[in-house]
């Protein structure tokens, strides 16, 4: 069984927001963990929704839906 990887708000927001200062690092990290199951909390998903509600609303909705279907 593979280890699960916990993802936090910073990682998800940086991965989606191309203008985020950590976007390049988040992309690299995403490639490294692509074969592992990702987990998070409802609180993190709430923060992601709030952080991305403006310019990245659709992307935020998609990522939240993905985690709720896992």
Describe what this molecule looks like in 3D.
It comes from Crocosphaera watsonii WH 0402. This is PilT protein, N-terminal. Helix content is 59%, strand content 6%. The chain is mainly alpha-helical and 70 residues long. It has one domain (5-69). The chain has a two-stranded parallel ribbon with strand order 1-2. Helix 1 (9-16) runs parallel beside helix 3. The longest helix has 13 residues, at 57-69. The radius of gyration is 12 Å and the shape is globular. The two termini are 16 Å apart. 16% of the residues are buried.
Summarize the structure.
Helices cover 59% and strands 6% of the residues.
Estimate what percentage of residues fall within beta strands.
5-15%
Radius of gyration in whole Å, from Cα?
12 Å
Distance between the termini: 16 Å
Work out the helicity level. 55-70%
Helix count? 4
Domains, number: 1
**Given the C-alpha coordinates, what overall shape results?**
globular
Mean pLDDT: 92
How many strands, what sense, and barrel or not for the largest sheet? Answer: 2 strands, parallel
Strand order of the largest sheet: 1-2
Helix-strand pattern, N to C?
A: EHHEHH
Report low-confidence residues grouped into runs of 5 or more: none
Class of secondary structure makeup? mainly alpha
Query: What is the number of beta strands?
Result: 2
SSE diagram, text form:
Blueprint lengths: L4 E2 L2 H8 L6 H10 L5 E2 L2 H10 L5 H13 L1
Parallel strand pairs: 1-2
Helix pairs in contact: 1-2, 1-3
Question: What characteristics describe this protein?
Answer:
about 70 residues; mainly alpha; two-stranded parallel ribbon; 2 strands; about 5% strand; globular
